[in-house]
Design goal:
By secondary structure, the chain is an alpha+beta fold. It folds into 2 domains: about 90 residues, Helix Hairpins (Orthogonal Bundle), CATH 1.10.287; about 160 residues, Beta-Lactamase (2-Layer Sandwich), CATH 3.30.450. Strands 1-4-3-2 form a 4-stranded antiparallel beta sheet. A hairpin with a 2-residue loop joins strand 2 and strand 3. Helix 1 packs across helix 3.
């Protein structure tokens, strides 16, 4: 096998190993970056929901205290306000969803689905857990969710959700008396869950990975072409010329060519050595002829 083919096979082997390693590391880093980006957005949405709940409870509800005595106003409920805000946001940004998933809610739309109920039960089973992060498959693709427990920490919540007897009649007129009761102080009754679709960040990371790998392949091709040109010009062509002259001299054709080189590199040194050897050979043959 010729030297240039051996050289190219070694380079190809190095490239394949490096290409696979670089692709694996790059993909892992890009996937982690995409996930961190989605998680950051989820945390921002969660904080926005908490801000809406706080604003509703501290600034809106106190203004309607007298009216609430005769009329049930859903908009004064922090959970309702946060959900409504995100429903409007979802119309523009469909990748974001928010739900206050509850095991036994007054409002049927807040009832936890099967996977949401599993999240709530995890919080109930480990009360010290303050946050759960996970991923799940949806009809539109992979989604990341961020969940935090909803725990009864205020006696004001029990005024509406302890028993039917003490619940405001205005609330019963809206939601009935079948659900949303039996809550207890410090009980975890649900979970705030923000879901963010991962298809856009993942597609962006995949596109970046493809661009990187294509660029790496192009750089390798350009590099191997340049190295081959350099190898042929600086090594193979010169060695081939030396081999041709040496072969002719070995067959007795002393006038075939001269071992000459203006370079001082290793091949140049070899050329000068072969030239001295040829001179010594000619002198030895002349001495034998005499």
């Amino acid at each position: 096998m010729k030297l240039i083919w051996k050289f190219n096979l070694v380079l190809l082997g190095v490239f394949i190993v490096g290409f696979i390693a670089a692709g694996y590391v790059s993909k892992k880093m890009l996937m982690e970056s995409a996930r961190d980006e989605v998680l950051q957005h989820a945390r921002l949405m969660m904080e926005a929901a908490l801000a809406t709940r706080t604003y509703t409870n501290t600034q809106i509800k106190p203004l309607l205290v007298e009216q609430l005595k005769t009329e049930f106003i859903k908009q004064t409920i922090p959970a309702y306000a946060a959900t409504e805000q995100f429903n409007d946001l979802h119309k523009t940004y469909s990748d974001y969803t928010y739900k206050e998933a509850t095991l036994n809610p007054s409002n049927p739309r807040d009832r936890a689905s099967d996977w949401e109920a599993d999240v709530v039960q995890t919080f109930r089973g480990t009360p010290t857990t303050t946050e759960i992060i996970g991923e799940r498959d949806t009809p539109t693709g992979r989604a990341l969710y961020l969940a935090r427990p909803i725990q009864i920490k205020s006696a004001a919540c029990l005024e509406c959700h302890s028993t039917v007897d003490v619940a405001p009649k205005t609330m019963l007129d809206v939601y009935g008396n079948a659900n949303g009761f039996g809550w207890q102080m410090n009980e975890i009754i649900g979970a705030q869950i923000v879901s963010v679709a991962m298809n856009v960040p993942l597609e962006r990371s995949n596109r970046a990975l493809r661009t990187f790998l294509i660029s790496l392949a192009v750089i390798f091709i350009v590099t191997i072409v340049l190295l081959n040109a350099m190898l042929y010009t600086m090594v193979i062509r010169r060695v081939t010329r030396l081999a041709g002259i040496a072969d002719a001299v070995s067959l007795g054709n002393l006038e075939f060519g001269e071992f000459q080189s203006r370079s001082s590199d290793e091949i140049g040194t070899l050329t000068h050595a072969l030239g001295r050897m040829k001179t010594s050979l000619i002198q030895a043959m002349r001495m034998l002829d005499n």
